[in-house]
Amino acid sequence: MIEMTERAAQHVRDFLDNRGKGEGIRVGIRTAGCSGLAYVLEFVDVPDDNDTRYESRGVSIFIDPKSLVYLDGLLMDYEKEGLNEGFKFTNPNQKGECGCGESFTV
Protein backbone atom coordinates (compact mmCIF):
# COMPACT_ATOMS: atom_id res chain seq x y z
CA MET A 1 0.00 0.00 0.00
CA ILE A 2 1.22 3.48 -0.89
CA GLU A 3 -0.48 6.50 0.67
CA MET A 4 -0.39 10.29 0.45
CA THR A 5 -1.35 12.95 2.92
CA GLU A 6 -4.04 15.38 1.79
CA ARG A 7 -1.39 18.07 1.35
CA ALA A 8 0.65 15.84 -1.02
CA ALA A 9 -2.44 14.74 -2.93
CA GLN A 10 -3.57 18.34 -3.42
CA HIS A 11 -0.12 19.28 -4.72
CA VAL A 12 -0.22 16.45 -7.29
CA ARG A 13 -3.82 17.28 -8.30
CA ASP A 14 -2.84 20.93 -8.82
CA PHE A 15 0.10 19.94 -11.02
CA LEU A 16 -2.03 17.54 -13.07
CA ASP A 17 -4.69 20.24 -13.52
CA ASN A 18 -2.04 22.74 -14.65
CA ARG A 19 -0.64 20.21 -17.15
CA GLY A 20 -4.11 19.55 -18.52
CA LYS A 21 -3.46 15.83 -18.76
CA GLY A 22 -2.19 12.84 -16.83
CA GLU A 23 -3.41 9.71 -15.09
CA GLY A 24 -1.37 10.28 -11.92
CA ILE A 25 2.24 9.97 -10.81
CA ARG A 26 4.80 7.18 -10.85
CA VAL A 27 6.96 6.73 -7.79
CA GLY A 28 10.12 4.71 -8.19
CA ILE A 29 13.68 4.39 -7.04
CA ARG A 30 17.02 4.65 -8.79
CA THR A 31 20.59 4.09 -7.76
CA ALA A 32 22.02 7.40 -6.60
CA GLY A 33 23.72 9.33 -3.83
CA CYS A 34 26.03 8.21 -1.09
CA SER A 35 23.49 5.84 0.50
CA GLY A 36 22.57 4.01 -2.68
CA LEU A 37 18.90 4.74 -3.56
CA ALA A 38 16.86 7.85 -4.35
CA TYR A 39 13.18 8.46 -5.01
CA VAL A 40 12.05 9.33 -8.53
CA LEU A 41 8.72 10.97 -9.38
CA GLU A 42 7.24 11.45 -12.83
CA PHE A 43 3.84 12.15 -14.31
CA VAL A 44 2.02 9.25 -15.93
CA ASP A 45 0.05 9.95 -19.08
CA VAL A 46 -0.24 6.30 -20.14
CA PRO A 47 0.22 3.66 -17.41
CA ASP A 48 2.62 0.79 -18.02
CA ASP A 49 0.93 -2.63 -18.02
CA ASN A 50 3.43 -3.85 -15.38
CA ASP A 51 2.80 -1.02 -12.91
CA THR A 52 0.89 -1.57 -9.69
CA ARG A 53 -1.73 1.14 -9.26
CA TYR A 54 -2.80 2.58 -5.92
CA GLU A 55 -5.39 5.25 -5.21
CA SER A 56 -4.85 7.68 -2.37
CA ARG A 57 -7.05 10.72 -1.75
CA GLY A 58 -8.17 10.83 -5.37
CA VAL A 59 -4.67 10.47 -6.88
CA SER A 60 -3.47 7.45 -8.84
CA ILE A 61 0.01 6.34 -7.82
CA PHE A 62 1.88 3.94 -10.11
CA ILE A 63 4.79 1.78 -8.93
CA ASP A 64 7.00 -0.30 -11.21
CA PRO A 65 7.60 -3.93 -10.15
CA LYS A 66 11.29 -3.43 -9.27
CA SER A 67 10.55 -0.48 -6.97
CA LEU A 68 7.52 -1.98 -5.24
CA VAL A 69 9.52 -4.15 -2.85
CA TYR A 70 11.35 -1.02 -1.59
CA LEU A 71 8.28 1.22 -1.44
CA ASP A 72 5.56 -0.98 0.08
CA GLY A 73 4.07 0.96 3.01
CA LEU A 74 5.35 4.36 1.80
CA LEU A 75 3.65 7.52 3.03
CA MET A 76 4.18 10.66 0.95
CA ASP A 77 3.74 14.16 2.39
CA TYR A 78 4.42 17.58 0.93
CA GLU A 79 6.17 20.12 3.14
CA LYS A 80 7.11 23.78 2.93
CA GLU A 81 9.87 24.99 5.25
CA GLY A 82 10.98 28.55 4.61
CA LEU A 83 12.11 28.78 1.01
CA ASN A 84 12.31 24.99 0.63
CA GLU A 85 9.43 22.79 -0.38
CA GLY A 86 9.08 19.25 -1.61
CA PHE A 87 7.85 15.75 -1.00
CA LYS A 88 8.78 13.99 2.23
CA PHE A 89 8.84 10.21 2.20
CA THR A 90 8.19 8.07 5.27
CA ASN A 91 9.29 4.59 4.26
CA PRO A 92 9.06 1.67 6.74
CA ASN A 93 11.62 -0.25 4.63
CA GLN A 94 14.28 2.44 4.98
CA LYS A 95 17.21 1.49 7.22
CA GLY A 96 19.22 4.72 6.90
CA GLU A 97 19.85 7.82 4.85
CA CYS A 98 22.74 10.05 3.93
CA GLY A 99 23.39 13.22 5.90
CA CYS A 100 21.84 15.50 3.29
CA GLY A 101 18.71 13.33 2.98
CA GLU A 102 19.04 12.86 -0.78
CA SER A 103 19.48 9.09 -0.73
CA PHE A 104 18.61 6.13 1.49
CA THR A 105 19.35 2.46 2.16
CA VAL A 106 16.99 -0.47 2.72
Characterization of the model:
The model has no long low-confidence stretch (mean pLDDT 86). The protein is built from two helices and nine strands. 20% of the residues lie in helices and 45% in strands. The strands form three sheets. It has a four-stranded mixed β-sheet with strand order 3-2-5-4. It has a three-stranded mixed β-sheet with strand order 1-6-7. A two-stranded antiparallel ribbon has the order 8-9. It starts with a strand and ends with a strand. 18% of the residues are buried. It has 106 residues and is α/β, with parallel strands linked by helices. The chain has helices at residues 6-19, 65-71; strands at residues 3-4, 24-32, 36-44, 52-56, 59-63, 75-81, 84-90, 96-97, 104-105. Keywords: Iron, Metal-binding. This is Iron-binding protein IscA.
Query: How is the largest sheet built, in terms of strand order?
Result: 3-2-5-4
Report the portion of residues in β strands: over 45%
Q: Mean of residue pLDDT?
A: 86
In the predicted model, the low-confidence regions spanning at least 5 consecutive residues are none
E-strand count: 9
| Tally of alpha and pi helices | 2
| Inertia-based shape | globular
Gap between N and C termini? 17 Å
Pfam families: Fe-S_biosyn
Keywords: Iron, Metal-binding
Protein name: Iron-binding protein IscA
Domain Core: 2-102
